[in-house]
Amino acid sequence: MANKSAVVTGCSSGIGRATALELTARGYEVIATARRHESIADLAVARTLALDVDSDESVAAAQAAVGPVDVVVNNAGFGIEGPVEEVPLAEVRRAFETNFFGAARMIQAFVPAMRERGSGTIVNVTSVAGVVGGPLAGYYSATKFALEALSESLHLEVGHYGVKVLVVEPGAIETRFGDNMVDHRGRPGPYAELATKWASAMKALGGGEPAPGPRLVATKICDALEAENSPLRLPVGADAELITSTRQGMSFDDFEATMRQVLQLDW
């Protein structure tokens, strides 16, 4: 992988940081980015750069500073949880700004050079929540469903020019993702009981085992980049593989009935 370059967003912790390090270990010249530069100053990569994916100006400045690259990993994002009825729409808009429009900005900034060169890869980190919308995660799922749809269209558009698109769909991963969560699940009210039941269901889905670390996702991304042929969508983790394969194999009504039974959800 000598002389190949990659820009990774959201490298302050978790999947972004692990991916930047794994790409570096495999010979990439990595430009690791985060909104706060001090959060990535210690990263042992080729270059670190402050980048706010919410800002047109910041993304344009990063593209000008970095120039053409071989890989862009759109990982920056945060969670937003709570009943559809209750989450303030201003917070929903902020989530879309980062989780969806942030990736779109990076694509518009870096794809033109890939298309003109006839090679390159866009990696969009979505989630199993971009495949299945669970209760109390409607808005987070909406941001990830949107990015899945965008990725599908982008794949059909730029594959003609030799540009590859990968959609990475992690399940539960042990990171600091929850630290930045916009969380409205614990409020008293009509959905408080559901929040308790759903938390128990998620523990049951994990089987009591600890979630894997972010290196699992980083390895999956790098393996896919090195593979001659890779599918568009890459679920990561036993839970993601189970949920995505089950969802793809049946109608929504059958899937809902199955998941209610497996998770013993009586809401």
Distance between the termini: 51 Å
**Would you list the SSEs in sequence order as H and E?**
EHEEHEEHEHEEHHEHH
Beta strands, count: 9
Task: Average the pLDDT over all residues and give the rounded result.
Answer: 94
Number of helices: 8
Helix content: 40-55%
Percent of sequence in beta strands? 5-15%
Main sheet attributes: strand count, strand direction, barrel closure: 7 strands, parallel
Runs with pLDDT <50, length 5+?
Answer: none
Shape: globular
**Rg from alpha-carbon coordinates:** 18 Å
Spatial sequence of strands, sheet with the most strands: 3-2-1-4-6-7-9
Provide the structure class: alpha/beta
Could you walk me through the main structural features you see in this protein, from its secondary elements to its overall organization?
With 267 residues, this protein is α/β, with parallel strands linked by helices. The protein has helices at residues 14-25, 56-66, 89-117, 138-158, 192-205, 215-226, 238-248, 252-263, and strands spanning 5-8, 29-34, 47-50, 71-74, 80-81, 120-125, 163-170, 182-183, 233-236. A seven-stranded parallel β-sheet has the order 3-2-1-4-6-7-9, sandwiched between helices. Helix 1 packs across helix 6 (215-226), helix 2 (56-66) packs parallel to helix 3 and helix 3 (89-117) packs parallel to helix 4. The radius of gyration is 18 Å and the shape is globular.
